[in-house]
Each structure stands twice: as C-alpha cells, then as structure tokens.
Amino acid sequence: MPESPEVQALAETLDGRLSGCRIQAVDLVEFRAMKTRDRPLSDLVGTGIRGVGRIGKYVDIALDTGHAVVSLGRHGWMRWTEAGGGADDDTQAPALVVLTIDDGTLALTDAGSWVSLGVWLVDAPDAVPAIAKLGPDPLDPTFSRDRVDHAVAGRRKQLKAILQEQESFAGIGNAYSDEILHRARLSPVVHGSDLDDAELERLYEAMRDVLRDAASARRGIPIDRLKQAKIDAMEVHGRAGSRARCAAGRSATSRSAERVRSTVRTARPGAGV
C-alpha cells in the first residue's frame, strides 16, 4: 500500500514534470475508478496543470479550474511514459485511467484483483469526504507532540490501529506503523491509554523521524523504483523469519488473520526492548 513518503516522492516528481503542461486526451479504461459521476473525465481535455501535490496518501493534481484527486488505494500507482516510449507490456500493472499530456502519458494503474484506485474531479480537495476527515500529517513541518497526545493519550485502542487510522494521522499505513513502533520501542498491541509521558514522547519522535527520513531518502528516485526502495529500506516490516536490522532488539512474528506483522518483543506492553 502506498504511504506518505513514497506518495510525496511521486508527487514531487510529477510536479516537476507536469506543471505548466496541458492534458490533450483522456481514456477511462475502468469506469469504477471514476468517483464523481456528475463530472466526466472528458472535462479534463484541454485543461492546464498548475501543479501536483500530496494530501495524506492522496495525489492532488491542481488544474486551471478545480482538482483531480487520486486515491492510490491498496495496489494503485502511476506510470509515466515519454512520448514515443512504446506501449505497455503484459508484465506491468494494468492502467485504469490514462492521461495524455503534452510530451507523454500518465497511466493510473492498479495491480490488485479488485479496483482500489479512485479519481475525483472536484473544486477543492476537501470535497473528497475522506480528505475532509484526515488527521494531522506527520510530514507537515508544523506537526507537534500535542497532536500525538490528542490522538493517542487516553484511547482504549491498540497503537498500530491508531497509527493506521487516517482520521488520527494522515499518510501512515501498515508498513510504516510497524517501523514507527519498532523505532519507539513500543508494542503494537498496547492501548494508547497505557502510555506514559516518556512513551508518548518516543512515539512522537519516531513518527516524525521515520517518516521524514523516509521521505528524504525517496526524493529523486524514479517513479518505477519507489515501491522497491520502500521494501528495501524496511527494518522490521515484511522481514518475518529474518533478523531485523536493529541492534536495539530482535523481532518476533505474529500472524493476524491475513498478514504477517512484525512486533517488538517487550517485557510488558509498552515497555522498552
């Protein structure tokens, strides 16, 4: 699932490439990807692109009038092809929406067995209901400790679930929640209400540092390599059965329903390793 550091790098690359360009043609390959039925995708033809940014896990394409907001969902991504660069092959994720720009094509892809990618044409990004409900973004330079206290302290809910709850913190998913909790030396199953002040401070610092370091490390990486760069950089997530690359402790494996989750072995929930 795309998360904020990789989506930030994607948006920065697209902003540098597409700003000032004009959309020449559109192709809605999969109608279920279009979420605003009253504004057809064909309205984009001839529209200029003012810039590309990120809001949580969403990509915001600012247009001459309005915005095209893209949710990458669980398996979505984007693929840029220079004009004359050749057709897609069968090994690539299928394109659900294709925008022809001045000097190339931008394909919105989804590699999943069900459609999770979505596109909205709106006057302002917060017209997308999920964006209107987003919590504070740890990549925002103004993100502060009091935001963590407000979202976490006193809550009878597991930390990993809180971190992935977009109304609490925008942009964090399954992978980075594991990385943050490992860095903070906190168990994913402890409740927010069980954390003391020192543990809340460790959580805040880990959220800030893990995500900002990741965003900085991804900057400038080609779009088609960003997902692999994320996988390669993980300290604990997805490394079940292998030794975590951290001197602070060892990772243990627990299975929860359909996925493997790396957890930090602790003496008690919330204690340091």
List low-pLDDT spans.
Answer: 243-273
What percentage of the residues does DSSP assign to strands (E)?
15-25%
By secondary-structure content and strand pairing, the structural class works out as alpha+beta
First-residue to last-residue Cα separation? 28 Å
What descriptors fit this protein?
273 residues; alpha+beta; N-terminal domain of MutM-like DNA repair proteins; four-stranded antiparallel beta sheet; 7 helices
Tell me about this structure.
By secondary structure, the protein is an alpha+beta fold. It has two domains: 4-132, MutM-like, N-terminal (N-terminal domain of MutM-like DNA repair proteins), CATH 3.20.190; 145-264, Helicase, Ruva Protein, domain 3 (Orthogonal Bundle), CATH 1.10.8. The chain is built from seven helices and ten strands. It has helices spanning 4-18, 129-132, 145-152, 159-164, 174-184, 197-218, 226-233; strands spanning 23-28, 49-55, 58-63, 67-71, 76-82, 95-101, 104-110, 118-122, 251-256, 259-264. A four-stranded antiparallel β-sheet has the order 1-6-7-5, with no helix packed on it. It has a four-stranded antiparallel β-sheet with strand order 2-3-4-8, covered by helices on one side. Helix 3 (145-152) crosses helix 6 and helix 5 (174-184) packs across helix 6. It is elongated and about 55 Å long. The model is unreliable at 243-273 (pLDDT under 50).
Concise description?
Helix content is about 25%, strand content about 25%.
Q: Which SSEs are present, and which pair or pack?
A:
Blueprint: H1 4-18, E1 23-28, E2 49-55, E3 58-63, E4 67-71, E5 76-82, E6 95-101, E7 104-110, E8 118-122, H2 129-132, H3 145-152, H4 159-164, H5 174-184, H6 197-218, H7 226-233, E9 251-256, E10 259-264
Antiparallel strand pairs: 1-6, 2-3, 3-4, 4-8, 5-7, 6-7, 9-10
